[in-house]
């Protein structure tokens, strides 16, 4: 498989000629039509709208036949025959479902994530999908927000690397049938900063936070070639993102010089009315368009008002032409004029292949994070006679698909029970007891059977509990205020733990959960996320040691909901929790809680292995660097345990004194290294000094000379520390 990306930016000059020739023939209504995206539920007369050339794009269709049918209306029955561009939410696989994106990111392996995105593109394109509404590159630091499942977690550097990997994978060259796909990073911008973790909620972040935290993954996605973007639902400091000229013009067009297509999120223009930013759809169309939204997804704003706004003189036709040019360019670049249809027979050949299933297994294995393993309870020995497999998710063929599972099917999913059966010898007795439902009220728990679970545990050598969230408890519109185990699962866990038998918890969820009791009382915990179709096999491989876990958290686990947001890249404050020697410093006067620790339950970057790694001999090879130079820092990493393993070596930096305050740590590099037992290696990072900057008081990106601290370690809370200086030029 080629991993080369198609270059949407390297447009052939003849495309410009064709765009202009077409534009010259278009009526105002046909132009506006190119700026409108509908779905099947939009209106009963959708076919006619397409025939009239008044729809430029459709989303969320189902199957090659249906897509070809709509393309035929546009290509063969409309006056100018302009093909539709077909969009779909391909979030973590299309037919072959991979782990949810936050889990994929826990591999810390952008090359692997790129391959997974390519597989998704291969499977989607043969159905006639041209436009993938992903990657979601929103930095997310609040696990109450259900959409934390869809992104790459809390960190700017890792999030940017994952954004690029996924864009490259989706926009791969050489897709089957000569088709092409364009990616759509979303949701521009700062959607992940929704107040109180509630979906669609207000965002009020500073321009500096925008520029230093929320925007860089988008810039990274554009640098990797992303040719479209989706504007977000949320407002930022009083201005909805989908009518935000600062974001859509000043940053996107003027600062970044990016010329791709801006698509609004679903009815985000119509929602300007609810924001109280537009009195009606006419004003919504006006404010959205003038701010820089090219295409209205399902908004009833552009299709009914944009042409009139031109006739009224409030919008210049030249501005419409600019947006239409961008859309037409994209359609030409995608090859839609040459090849609007897809061959329905292709799907059977390229979807859900053994190769794709094998990759889904590899990603699942590498995405799972071992959170605790007291007394090396894991891996379990193959000689166990009886295993109690307990919990509502133990034999679940749906929820491991996770939120947004495309064309994934329950029948494709290997449950944990399936996985264990596949790896265990026939004579091992597996006692499967669901114990209770995942969620719901008393009625849902009418058949809760803690006694059966306890009885099974009592006769078993070990109890493996598979607990967590249903897929519908994370993703869009699925925020939660309580992040404990839903339903009666905590009771089930406590009842089984009370047997005194060794207990392993496999946690499936779309977000970090708040699990202090479990962390205190359960010896072994594996965070399996919603791991996709191969999660059962992957879990079995990890539990029985065929695979040594290597996933590392990309988002901190809070100890309690009250700590949220808790993330490693915080600011120091004037009274940091861990400092000595400030005048009014007794414990109470620090930035701490009276009744909760300040540290997370598990920090960013954390994850255990079946072997041990030690870090020693940090060397800052460049104690003094110039602004155009690179910081070189290295450390010895040794596998001091009993088996081969993979360590993710992480490099963090702190700018000690700034023109504005800087985070206490920022990830600036990471390397996954495989070490045999007893093997050691010097791991070296070379960090470009230009990447150590930030937006200063004047909101200019600068790198400031001065003193820095640097760490190499296994996670954001540990590591060897050194210093370097950026010299004044
Ligand atoms: C709304 C979601 O916010 C967005 O992520 C998605 O791509 C669109 N709906 C289309 O389904």
CATH topology of the largest domain: TIM Barrel
CATH H-tier superfamily of the largest domain: Glycoside hydrolase, family 3, N-terminal domain
Q: What is the mean pLDDT?
A: 96
Form type: globular
First-to-last CA distance:
47 Å
Biggest sheet strand line-up: 5-4-3-2-1-10
User: What fraction, in percent, of the residue positions are helical?
Assistant: 25-40%
Tell me the strand percentage band: 15-25%
Rg from C-alpha positions?
26 Å
Oligomer: single chain
Q: What would you say the CATH architecture of the largest domain is?
A: Alpha-Beta Barrel
Please indicate the count of domains: 3
Ligand species = 1-deoxynojirimycin
β-strand number: 26
Number of helices: 21
Low-confidence stretches: none
Quick summary:
The protein is α/β, with parallel strands linked by helices and 729 residues long. Helix content is 28%, strand content 18%. A hairpin with a 5-residue loop joins strand 23 (694-695) and strand 24 (701-702).
Describe the structure.
The structure is a single chain. This protein has 729 residues and is an alpha/beta fold. It has three domains: 28-346, Alpha-Beta Barrel (TIM Barrel); 368-543, Glycoside hydrolase family 3 C-terminal domain (Rossmann fold), CATH 3.40.50.1700; 613-727, Immunoglobulins (Immunoglobulin-like, Sandwich), CATH 2.60.40. Helix content is 28%, strand content 18%. It is built from 21 helices and 26 strands. The strands form seven sheets. It has a six-stranded parallel sheet, with helices on one face. A six-stranded mixed sheet has the order 11-16-15-14-12-13, with helices on both faces. The chain has a five-stranded mixed sheet with strand order 18-26-25-20-21. Helix 4 (64-77) links the parallel strand 2 and strand 3 (85-88). Helix 6 (110-125) packs parallel to helix 7, helix 6 packs antiparallel against helix 16 and helix 7 (156-170) runs parallel beside helix 9. The longest helix has 17 residues, at 317-333. The model has no long low-confidence stretch (mean pLDDT 96). Bound molecules: 1-deoxynojirimycin (NOJ).
């Amino acid at each position: 498989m080629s991993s080369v990306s198609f270059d949407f930016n390297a447009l052939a000059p003849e495309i410009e000629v064709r765009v202009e020739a077409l534009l010259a023939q278009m009526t105002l209504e046909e132009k506006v039509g190119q700026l409108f995206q509908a779905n099947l539920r939009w209106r009963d007369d959708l076919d006619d709208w397409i025939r009239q050339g008044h729809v430029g794009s459709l989303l969320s269709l189902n199957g090659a036949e249906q897509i070809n049918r709509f393309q035929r209306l546009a290509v063969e029955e409309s006056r100018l025959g302009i093909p539709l561009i077909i969009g779909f939410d391909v979030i973590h696989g299309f037919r072959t479902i991979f782990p949810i994106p936050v889990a994929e990111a826990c591999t810390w392996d952008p090359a692997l994530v790129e391959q997974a995105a390519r597989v998704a593109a291969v499977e989607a394109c043969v159905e006639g999908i041209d436009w993938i509404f992903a990657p979601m590159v929103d930095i997310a630091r609040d696990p109450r927000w259900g959409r934390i499942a869809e992104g790459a977690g809390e960190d700017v550097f890792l999030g940017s690397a994952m954004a690029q990997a996924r864009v490259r994978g989706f926009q791969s060259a050489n897709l089957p049938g000569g088709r092409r796909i364009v990616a759509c990073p979303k949701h521009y911008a700062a959607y992940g900063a929704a107040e109180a973790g509630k979906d669609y909620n207000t965002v009020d972040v500073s321009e500096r936070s925008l520029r230093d935290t929320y925007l860089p993954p988008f810039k990274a996605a554009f640098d990797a070639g992303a040719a479209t973007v989706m504007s977000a639902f949320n407002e930022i400091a009083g201005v909805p993102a989908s009518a935000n000229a600062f974001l859509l013009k000043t940053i996107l067009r003027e600062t970044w010089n990016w010329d791709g297509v801006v698509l609004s999120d679903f009815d985000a223009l119509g929602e300007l009315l609810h924001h109280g930013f537009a009195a009606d759809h006419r004003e919504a169309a006006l404010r959205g368009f003038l701010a820089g939204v090219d295409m209205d997804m399902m908004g009833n704003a552009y299709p009914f008002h944009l042409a009139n706004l031109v006739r009224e003189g409030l919008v210049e036709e030249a501005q419409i032409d600019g947006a239409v040019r961008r859309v037409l360019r994209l359609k030409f670049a995608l090859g839609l004029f040459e090849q609007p249809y897809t061959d329905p027979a292709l799907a059977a050949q390229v979807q859900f292949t053994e190769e794709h299933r094998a990759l889904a297994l590899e990603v699942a294995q590498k995405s799972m994070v071992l959170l605790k393993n007291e007394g090396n309870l894991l891996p379990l020995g193959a000689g166990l006679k009886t295993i109690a497999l307990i919990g509502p998710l133990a034999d679940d063929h749906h929820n491991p698909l996770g939120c947004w599972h495309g064309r994934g099917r329950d029948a494709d999913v290997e449950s944990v029970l399936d996985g264990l059966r596949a790896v265990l010898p026939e004579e091992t007795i597996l006692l499967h007891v669901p114990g209770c439902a995942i969620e719901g009220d008393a009625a849902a728990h009418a058949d809760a059977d803690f006694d059966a679970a306890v009885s099974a545990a009592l006769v078993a050598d070990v109890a493996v509990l598979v607990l967590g969230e249903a897929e519908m408890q994370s993703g869009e519109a699925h925020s939660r205020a309580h992040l404990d185990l839903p339903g009666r699962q905590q009771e089930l866990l406590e009842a089984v733990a009370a047997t005194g038998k060794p207990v392993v918890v496999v946690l499936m969820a779309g977000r970090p959960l708040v699990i202090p009791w479990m962390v205190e009382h359960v010896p072994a915990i594996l965070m399996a996320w919603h791991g996709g179709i191969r999660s059962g096999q992957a879990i079995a491989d990890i539990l029985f040691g065929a695979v040594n876990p290597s996933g590392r958290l990309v988002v901190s686990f809070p100890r309690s909901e009250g700590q949220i947001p808790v993330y490693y890249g915080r600011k120091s404050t004037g009274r940091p929790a861990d400092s000595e020697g400030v005048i009014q410093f007794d414990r109470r006067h620090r930035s701490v809680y009276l009744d909760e620790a300040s540290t997370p339950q598990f920090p960013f970057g954390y994850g255990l292995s079946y072997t041990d790694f030690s870090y020693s001999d940090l060397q800052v090879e460049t104690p003094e660097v110039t602004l155009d130079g690179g910081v070189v820092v290295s450390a010895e990493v040794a596998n001091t345990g009993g088996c081969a393993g993979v360590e993710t070596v992480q490099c963090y930096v702190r700018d000690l004194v700034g023109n504005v305050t800087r985070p206490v740590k920022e990830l600036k590099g990471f390397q996954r290294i495989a070490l045999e037992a007893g093997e050691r290696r010097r791991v070296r990072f070379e960090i470009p000094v230009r990447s150590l900057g930030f937006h200063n008081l004047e909101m200019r990106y600068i790198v400031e000379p001065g003193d820095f601290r640097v760490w190499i370690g296994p996670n954001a809370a540990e590591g060897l520390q050194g210093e370097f200086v950026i010299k004044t030029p």
